[in-house]
Amino acid sequence: MMNNYKLTNFNFGRAFIYLILAFFAFIYLAPLYVMFTTSLKDIEEIRSGNLMALPIDPTLYAWKKAWSSACTGSECEGLAPYFWNSVRIVFPAVIISTILGAFNGYALAKWKFKGSDLLFGAQLFGCFIPFQVILLPMAKLLGSLGLANTVTGLVLVHVIYGVAFTTLFFRNYYVGIPTELVKAAKLDGASFLKIFRHIFIPLSTPIFVVTIIWQFTQIWNDFLFGVVYSGSGTQPITVALNNLVNTSVGGKEYNVDMAAAIIAAMPTLVVYVIAGKYFVKGLTAGAVKG
Amino acid sequence: MGSISLNGIRKSFGETEVLKDINLDIKDGEFLILIGPSGCGKSTLMNLIAGLEDLTGGEIVIDGNDVSQESPKDRDIAMVFQSYALYPTMNVARNICFGLEMSKMPKEEQEVILKKVSSLLQIDHLLDRKPGQLSGGQRQRVAMGRALARSPKVFLFDEPLSNLDAKLRVEMRTEIKKLHQRIGTTIVYVTHDQIEAMTLADRIAVLKDGELQQVGTPYEIYNDPVSHFVADFMGSPGMNFIECIVKDENLIVESGGKKYELSIPCKEALNNSKLDVVMLGIRPEMLTEIQPSVEKNAYIHKVKFDVEVLEPMGADTVAIGQWNGNEVMARLSPESGNTAGKGFDLQVDTSKAILFDPNSGLRIR
């Protein structure tokens, strides 16, 4: 079939498609370009120059300031401490919610009990609860647990909110794994946990990657929970970025704002670049060939 | 040792009764085949024996112990699945040894068993491969190896050959039979393939709608079926069934435009039944070309037959026509098959013919 096509021939339809693709690629990439070039300019050049122009004299001044000395409200330590706050929230929250989701999904998919489908339906409902609805009850809960304004409290919130999604991911993945594997392993004398460890976990790399990317992005990018449940020393980077941009000492330093925004977005970008191909694979992975 | 007694087994899924009062004794070392159309409950019965499903009623006794409440691993049973169910991330060696590993057997002993099993099944060269790198027949062997490694009391085979192509299926069938002769362990084998059932079984249990229809040797099931259903299910090409009017202990058959009176063996039963119309059951191999060597007796008839369709199968040719408006298959030699057509002279041997009540489908005897 392909041989009948002459790909080298000029074709108006094809040219039109490429033109549209190029146009949208430009629209999507333009803000990133502006952010990046602006972050490398000094403030004089920003005021006088063209938004789209390349920096005449590139400098890392804005990056250094955004990282270590820009003011976020009354503190002037840059984003660095909040970056580490976010790391301290994201890692445990992602790991715990993923592990819980894997167990839940495994049990709901392969160890059906009376009412297990109903339970799954109820869990699924958790995916559709808006953040705003749980703000007050959650604040009360964190208060009575003594976890208000702590990193642990934020981890707990993200785990609870994330389990609905991670369970859904794992359950749907495990449903595609033949139940006969469980039967065979039962006859081989393996227990609930041993079947999970020796048979299901080794098959789960794609879905672990999907879940980790999803959870990492959600939790790292979260602003609402971060702003509501954090104290002065435990704010995540998204909240600090907001404060940094809104704090003006003297004139507005657009170059620092841009550098700060890129720093805040960097980890999720890195995760996508490293694990992105697994993400697509995991989303499309069907039943396991035995 | 591995005798199994199924006493009054019942199983329901919600309102649906899948198995209704199954009673069956399987002797130690026996090769028992469970056969029936899909949905007859044969796989459910197998899962019950394995302990993968809970009984609704009745008890399962293995070697004199009631195991109805025991978990699968305590029943000392191994199973080969239709899909093989090999663990996809483990290599062949670990697949085979997984059960031993779970029972915490020392590594050295596992190695010994692995060597024995893999050479028995000729899969020594595959031990490092993953299941995904194996062909269908090789996976089948590994699945059997996994079952063999634990040397259980009973093997359960759940349609193990149905995923293989026709040629390989015949090969593996022979291997399973050889294997059983060598190790002598009790085997319960589920299939819907009647040729597998005939060739492998010591005894066949025919199941329909959750009820046992007949249990017997392949010879009994083939030649002495209790009902129209069993007779119809076993044999390929299947038994011919012809509705006939009874006249003076003989059956009237119209074939090739002429009427014949066929003499049949079970006259007394026919008289006792007082039926005017019966269903004649006769296997295709009893309908052949004229064979001069066969001695004439009351059960050998010569009948004109209008052949409508010929199906050459190599070793013989199936000729299809009509008797009393019912489709009838005859089994001819390839040579006479070539010349068969309208008004073909058919030799009909009714010595093994059987009769059914056309209403109930039960044997008249």
Task: Explain what you see.
- The complex is a heterodimer of chains A (290) and B (365).
- With 290 residues, chain A is mainly α.
- Chain A folds into two domains: 12-59, no CATH class; 80-284, MetI-like fold (Orthogonal Bundle).
- Helices cover 69% and strands 0% of the residues of chain A.
- Chain A is built from 13 helices and no strands.
- In chain A, helix 1 (12-39) crosses helix 13, helix 4 runs parallel beside helix 7 (151-175) and helix 4 runs antiparallel to helix 12 (237-246).
- Chain A is globular and about 75 Å long.
- With 365 residues, chain B is of the alpha+beta class.
- Chain B folds into two domains: 4-233, P-loop containing nucleotide triphosphate hydrolases (Rossmann fold), CATH 3.40.50; 240-356, no CATH class.
- Chain B is built from ten helices and 21 strands.
- Chain B has helices at residues 42-50, 92-102, 107-120, 136-149, 166-183, 194-200, 218-223, 228-233, 267-273, 334-339, and strands spanning 4-13, 16-26, 31-35, 57-62, 65-66, 77-80, 154-158, 186-191, 203-208, 211-216, 240-247, 250-255, 258-263, 277-282, 287-289, 300-305, 309-312, 317-323, 326-332, 344-349, 354-356.
- The longest helix of chain B has 18 residues, at 166-183.
- The mean pLDDT of chain B is 92.
- Classes of the chains: A mainly alpha (290), B alpha+beta (365).
Mean of all residue-level pLDDT scores of chain B: 92
- Please state the structural category of chain B: alpha+beta
Shape of chain A: globular
Tally of DSSP β-strands of chain B: 21
Strand order of the largest sheet of chain B: 6-7-8-3-9-10
Rounded mean pLDDT score of chain A: 88
Per DSSP E runs of 2 or more residues, the count of β-strands of chain A stands at: 0
Could you list the spans of chain B in which at least 5 consecutive residues all have pLDDT below 50?
none
What is the CATH H-level superfamily of the largest domain in chain B? P-loop containing nucleotide triphosphate hydrolases
Strand content of chain A: under 5%
CATH topology of the largest domain in chain A: MetI-like fold
Proper CATH architecture of the largest domain in chain A: Orthogonal Bundle
| Most extensive chain interface and residues per partner | A-B, 19 and 28 residues
Q: Termini separation of chain B (Å)?
A: 38 Å
Number of domains of chain A: 2
Return Rg of chain A in Å.
24 Å
Shape of chain B: elongated
How many H/I helical runs of chain B? 10
What's the CATH H-level homologous superfamily of the largest domain in chain A? MetI-like
